[in-house]
Amino acid sequence: SSGINAEWPLRPGIKKIKDSGANLAICQWGFDDEANHLCLQNELPAVRWVGGPEIELIAIATGGRIVPRFSELTPDKLGYAGKVREIEFGTTKDRMMVIEDCKNTRAVTLFLRGSNTMIVQEAKRSIWDAMCVIRNLVRDNRIVYGGGSNEISCAIAVSAAADKVPSIEQYAMRAFADALESVPMALAENSGLAPFATLAEVKSRQIKEDNPRLGIDCMDAGENDMKVQHVIETLIGKKQQIMLATQLVRMILKIDDVRSPGEGE
User: Fold this and answer.
1) Residue of 29, 57, 218, 224 with fewest CB within 10 Å of its CB?
2) Own/partner pairs for 155-160, CB < 8 Å, 24+ apart?
3) What angle do CA 257, 259, 262 make, to 5 degrees?
4) CA atoms of 65 and 198, how far apart (whole Å)
5) pTM for the whole structure
């Protein structure tokens, strides 16, 4: 009798799903083996356990609605997918369900594979950085040229403006200009170039040729024009970098004293 009582509420529910036109059911809270057996008897494929965030993403991708009970299921709440399949990957034969050709093609899932966890995590961080760049371009599509070219041109402009300031603030402005030049110097040093000589050469060419796009040739392409090399950065990202660095320095300057480890022992 327990078997009859368990399956009795499910039979009308499965019929309701079939009558709505659905050919695949995805459940968030899961169901037991008996319910799975009833779905197979009625030729209704079903996924018994899908997490909350995943089922919400599936609903967005397929254009469907998540319904809490059978009575609320109607044909207009169904989602659409061209293909649902299960794939195996890796040496451990892990399985994954893939939903393809969805109604909302703007929703995608990136599947990263690597030989070890460290490589996968590094690839994940790289993709996250790339997505943040796209997000910044959506917010503000203005760009600046990279390779340290914008820092050098800003340093030249700040130094020129410092010469016109009669007060002692000109020293702070020159120090700010010197700090901006630390970025192209680091790029040159990390690329195996002579940092001081390379910076002096590029800075001189920027002033002489009046070309603010000249930067450090990190890839040894034989061209210092970052527009030709297609090296760009988002303006909103560059502004945020400079603002955060400036705020950090201001915070440190407000500290009256600094205690080193072991001091006073």
Assistant:
1) 29
2) 155/180, 155/181, 155/203, 156/203, 156/206, 156/207
3) 160
4) 60
5) 0.60
